[in-house]
Amino acid sequence: MALTWWPSPAKLNLFLHINQQREDGYHCLQTVFQMLDRGDEIAFEPAERLHMATPMSGVCDEDNLILKAARLLQDYTNTQLGCRIHINKNLPMGGGVGGGSSNAATTLLVLNKLWNLTIPSEELQQLGLSLGADVPVFVNGETTFAEGVGESFTPIAIPESWYLIVHPNIHVSTQTIFTEPDLPRSTPIISPKQYKFESTQNDCQKIVCNRHPEVAYLLQWLIQFAPSRMTGTGACVFAQFNAKHEAEETLAKLPRKWSGFVAKGVQTSPLIQQLESQRSYTF
Q1: Same structural domain for residues 96 and 34?
Q2: Which residues contact 276 (CB under 8 A, 6 or more apart)?
């Protein structure tokens, strides 16, 4: 039987404001999650137990968000169903484009369908939050203005853009950045209607650039071609273009020490679109 591949799309944080740090240590944020039309791909086959058919380099089963998400669904619904899971890994791990969180969300959404569990999206979002702060936005599957710890969504329409996403091939620890004493934590709250790319910033960017000069150098290189910014806590940086060919021409100039890809910003993630088009698909 031919495998059915399901999208596990990337995202960008078009901006990231840190409004305050709560008493429990979590940070109240504001951001725009921009869905992209590129990402990983995951396939699921019926099986008696849960296991990865495709080993993921450097990730043990105990830390694998795909298996964690599948086990969470099993425990939550008391299902005895299993599956064999395949992945085509295209997104950089720890790059700030949501790879692991997106993988978890795709697993929740697709197994909810294939196992015929019928859990509503809002409930899946709450389940996903226990796996990571970015998981709910991928379950929601829409480009959105997000607040709180990233779980409160307001729909927002972003003009169609093409993005060049570049990874400087270094790792940035999110935990380290958010525990940095000099991290800004009092950026004023804005409303979704006030959002403009040019009047916002990524509050983590300066800290990351100071700690990782390669990110600063990459930003300096990209900004000569288009408006550029770091996504999340990095290490990926993106440049925003009006046309695909402009992004591809810049990608062709990219120094070999960096890796990159071009993606289109979309309002609805390709995973949600495929789920809608294959409503009757089950194991």
Answers
A1: yes
A2: none
Question: How many other C-beta atoms lie within 10 A of the C-beta of residue 254?
Answer: 15
The answer to whether 117 and 98 are in contact (CB under 8 A) is: no
Q: How many CB atoms lie within 10 A of CB 198?
A: 6
> 186 lies in a domain?
yes
Q: What is the pTM of this model?
A: 0.95
The helix (H) or strand (E) run that includes residue 87 is strand 82-88
List, for residues 19-47, the tens digit of each pLDDT value. 999 988 889 999 999 999 999 999 999 99
Q: What token pair was written down for 4?
A: 């059915």
283 in a structural domain: no
- Pick the catalytic residue from 40, 68, 134, 203: 134
Q: Of 11, 68, 113, 203, which one is the catalytic site residue?
A: 11
Q: What is the pLDDT of residues 166-220, one digit of tens each?
A: 999 999 999 999 999 999 999 999 999 999 999 999 999 999 999 999 999 999 9
Under 8 Å between Cβ of 121 and 138: no
207 and 124 share a domain? no
Is there a catalytic annotation at residue 11?
yes
> Which residue's structure tokens are 């709450």?
126
User: Are residues 216 and 147 part of one domain?
Assistant: no
Is residue 134 annotated as part of the catalytic site, yes or no? Answer: yes
Q: Tell me the backbone φ, ψ of residue 110, rounded to 5 degrees.
A: -75, -45
Instruction: Tell me the pLDDT band of 282, cut-offs 50, 70 and 90.
Output: confident
Q: Give the bridge partners for 162, in sequence order.
A: 241, 264
Q: What is the pLDDT of residues 43-86, one digit of tens each?
A: 999 999 999 999 888 888 888 999 999 999 999 999 999 999 99
